Amino acid sequence: MEKLILRRVDRNSEEMVLNFGPQHPSTHGVINFIVETDGEVMKRAIPDVGYLHRSIEKIGEVVGYPGFMPFTDRIDYVAAMFANEGYAIAVEKLLKVEVPPRAQWLRAISCELCRIASHLVGVGTMTMDIGAFTPMVHGLREREEINDYIEALCGARLTYNYHRIGGVAFDLPEGWRDKVLAFLDRFDKFLPEFDRLITFNEIYKRRLASVAVISREQAIGYGLVGPNLRGSGVDWDVRRDLPYGAYPHFKFEVPIGKGWAGTVGDCFDRYYVRCLEMAESSKIVRQALETIAQQPEEIMAKVPRNVKPEAGETLSRVESARGEMAYYVVSDGTNKAYRVRARTGSFTAMSVIEDISSGLMVADLVALISSLDVVAPEIDR
Amino acid sequence: MKTRSTHEIHALLVDRFGDAVGPLSEPKIDPFCVVKRERIVEVCRFLETEPGLELDFLEDLTAIDWPKRNVIEVVYHLLSYTHRHSIVLKVEADRANPVVPTVEGVWKTANWFEREVYDLFGVTFEGHPDLRRIMLPDDWIGHPLRKDYQEAGGYHGLSNVRENPLVELKRLDDAKKAEAAKAAPAAAEPAAKA
Amino acid sequence: MATVTLPKGNPRTKLIITIAVGLALPVILFGAVLVLTTIAKPAPVQAFVQTVLGKDPATWPFTGLVYAVAAALLSFMILNFGAVIAATTIWWEMRVSSRMQSRIGYNRVGAGGFFQWIADAVKLLLKEDLIPADADQLMFRAAPYFVFAGFGLIFVALPFGEGVIAADLNVGIFYVVAVTALVVVGILLAGWSSNSKWALFGGMRSAAQVISYEIPAGISVMVPILMAGTLSMQGIIRAQGAWPWQWFVFTNPAALVAFVIFFVSQLAESNRPPFDLPEAESELVAGYLSEYSAFRYAIFFLVEFGNVWIMSAIAVTLFFGGWQVPGVTADMYEAARGAGALPAPAWWGLQVASMVVFAVKTMLVMNLVIWVRWTFPRIRVDQMMNLCWKYLVPGAFVTFVTTLLWQILVASVPVAATASGVALSVLTLVALVQMLRHARQAVEAGGDRVDLSNW
Asked: Taking the model in full, what pTM does it have?
């Protein structure tokens, strides 16, 4: 890989070819960048992925349909609920099963809590990469509470394996609802404090404003999804535009980038869209918790032990914390999937880095990577 | 914004491209249509630029290996943000020598997706500016997601087989017991003598 | 919910031992420094050789050696003292930062984790000392010593109390500014000799940063020098008074601006956030320190935190009245001394009071430094250069010229100094109170209470 670059570097100039990673505190996982720099300004940053490739898609062809659910957690372990949900929806489409409403409510609740947790990590690590250590610790403090609640719900703090084909695994524990509502009250007050601490800080805005601008056409052309896409001004959210699950019953806004600090589609927009999304998720969880009592008791549809959908294929989409996650499941009539494919947002987010990295400084590359909120397991699967 | 159903989009395609576009598969759960290999770029460009269709988002580009039918299907999932309709296209490539023209000129995101398909399936995309492996190391042999992939038995001296740890532990346990048994009768004798 | 096991309270003995060691260690070390400064001079050494060793100092060939031993002992004591001060700074910073981040912080080794630095130092001593094979062997080893020398030399001229200064140079502040520049040499050497691209990046950035910020630092230091009319540290302090309206920072409006410029420049000089690009952890792993391990790393680490103390001490000396105890004028020290060979206890009491005042003021400024570190993100290289050359340097020049004019004004209208002092100190107090009220309102809007009991 380096040979491709080194042969073009002129030894006499100040150009350096550096390896940014794979072990590096700020590349959100095990990713390598080969950076050609001329002093502090980069000419190109070429991402080199694959360090975390675990052939999950091949595993999907070997374990059965229900057995693949824990593996979906590992596709994106920071926001694992969405991975679970996407796969469950795809297989349910193949089986033509309908998920009971209470299960859909529970899916929405667990997913939105997971979205808050994932955004806290994404936003927190971004501030840490820019140099402010305190906001991340504050964010992790809130995330610890969310982890505790999810642990009470499904038994795990990170890789949940909570959704099942046909519903969810467990119902709400006693008193969970009130505790989470109390937590949301506190969390809604935490967000303005977080904003005052870092978002409106002049140094922070100067670091991110008009840095690494991704235009609307670039965002769509390169296949960016989720907050990255919305940060560039495209008004698209799968929960609202191609609704699934319980989302049609909830009212929430979809924040899109407006160039709050500089240009539309710069790093600050992508960052602030995530901050606003956290507030929206909190609203959704509140609405869901307030209306879940009205749903009948069932949390799991009747799905046979030996899951054998008829031959066919389907694509399911969920709005994960990192964007649209699509599962493409091909079945050939047996009880093992013929092909399982997870299309993740971070994969395409990496592809955009090479083309917009020329002219940036190394510090801006760090800002760019963290504003795209990539996680390595999603890229490599 | 005018959402068309998949049937309508397919009808428009058949209108325009005739028999380069196959029929919609029915009654499969998500219908798809097979496009002839040579015309795929034109079809994609048409779908992307035609006003009223504007499928500007290449959601996914992947492949499926069908050794029984001797093809590798390259699958394209397209979506339109403005009109909210979608369609699935497939291109069948000959399994012995899979070559498909690249759609990287239509959607930039195809660049990395096609690299991944090349890496894991071995499909060569003509016209791709930078076709090299993406997930696996550059000197990997084989294309893992094919159904007949055999592992090469190691990579640069690192073996990829190892014994079941339980078997190993049992062996260690047995060795320890044997040693203890040897020491015990030896200890029992002097104890008996004394 | 998650439970955390805390150590079982703070047994009295642990607390007492911590306080005892915490006070005794610096006091003993600095006491030794003071004693040795009087001894390690040619005359006492010759007297010592004559009376104790019974040799004639003029002809004995080893007089120089005794003198060298005394000087080495003195420098050993000063460096130890500096290290202990740095360690105390580390402890304080970690306590403050842990509270700011809602964490528990150090709480195991000693009461409030006071002896954590001993544990850290021992750990770092025991680590493997790696030197990259391709690194420049001599320079790599030498770099930490340059940095440590630059750091230790400053303690000689810091005025800890009215008579508590190792060497009252009459070019005190000039000497201090000059010696801090040694640290730059060390950093550059470290970055260059590591033979690693990341270290090189860090070294280059740091060199650019420190050299650029020397200029506004130097010019803003001129402001109190002009006001005091002397370069000597004790002289500058004696030219100020003890009450806030008599401090240099308030008696001259330009000095307030000069203090801000000085503060920012010193942050940049010591590579403290928001100017910590040379060691930006998230970009360059550890920048110019990347290849250093074990005790060499400990030295850099120590110097960085010690610089926090030094920076605050210099700011206090120049702008905040140093060790001046409120209500105690200069002649009271003389009066309390008494006529005997050894000064009267009252004099010792006053000295201790002045040391306490100095320490408290330095801690307050140090708190400000720590606060800034854990609140602000990092500034990018070009923005930092922008700030220095386009804003701080012209600003420093403006304050310099304004001070020249102000001194002329004060010479003819002495009440201007008092008027400015009173006005600015009242304004600052009002601003401080407003800020605290605003903070309390923000805390209560977040649904929390202001609770100082869990310190």
From this structure: 0.87
